[in-house]
Amino acid sequence: MRIENEKIYPDCPVLARTVEVGGITKSQLIQKLQQHSILMNEYGERLIADEKFTTSDTKYSLQTVELTVSNLGFPDGASTTQIFKRASDLGLELCPLELGAHLRLEYLDQPEGYSGSPIQRHQAPSGSITIASEILKEDDDFPKGFYLRQINGVLWLRGYRADHLHIWNHDDHFIFCQTKKTSKK
């Protein structure tokens, strides 16, 4: 389905959030996820366990925007590279990888993701929100980032894999950062 009159960022509806990031260790972050009964898939566990997944010692706030691939000017979908480049051209930044876990802890009322439609392989699941973040490893078998989802009342922080040929759908949701602000604490 192609949306002809879709508005392009920043002249489109977005969901803006302020997210507190950092100030705790990786093990404390994992413990908080467990305390909130947030589940992770194997890819999410691999990402968070990797030595390149780091947490900031300093707590700071990030302004984020959630928008669709169409809101970036791709009514027919686009690759990750195209999406990230367009977002950068529009003044948006990739998020630190740890944002996914912190946002999952703050966004506990995410709507249910399963719409009753069959699950389609190699596509972002219905109701999921992908965190646009730096890719840690070019290896196609290593997860590229996190996405948030609620399935049957259970909150998930899931990792995903997508190679450079993957085309995201026009209505897939991404989160990008606008600005970084250090918290005075």
Secondary structure: elements and pairs:
Elements (H helix, E strand, L loop, with lengths): L14 E7 L4 H10 L3 E2 L1 H8 L10 E9 L9 E2 H10 L9 H8 L22 E3 L13 E7 L2 E7 L6 E2 L4 E10 L3
Description of the molecule:
This protein has 185 residues and is of the alpha+beta class. It contains 4 helices and 9 strands; from the N terminus they run βαβαββααβββββ. It has one domain (15-182). The strands form 2 sheets. Strands 1-3-9-5-6-7-2 form a 7-stranded mixed beta sheet. Strands 4-8 form a two-stranded antiparallel ribbon. α1 (26-35) runs parallel beside α4 (99-106).
Q: Hey, roughly how much beta strand do the residues contain? A: 25-35%
Sketch the topology as an H/E string, one letter per element: EHEHEEHHEEEEE
Number of helices: 4
Regions with pLDDT < 50 over 5+ consecutive residues? Answer: none
Major β-sheet annotation: 7 strands, mixed
| Shape annotation | globular
Helix fraction?
10-25%
Topology, number of strands? 9
The largest sheet has its strands arranged as 1-3-9-5-6-7-2
Indicate the radius of gyration in whole angstroms: 16 Å
Count of discrete domains: 1
First CA to last CA: what distance? 48 Å
Q: Helix/strand/pairing class, anyone?
A: alpha+beta
Mean pLDDT: 91
Organism: Viridibacillus arenosi FSL R5-213
Protein name: Helicase
Please provide a brief summary of the model:
By secondary structure, this protein is an alpha+beta fold. The chain has four helices and nine strands, in the order βαβαββααβββββ.
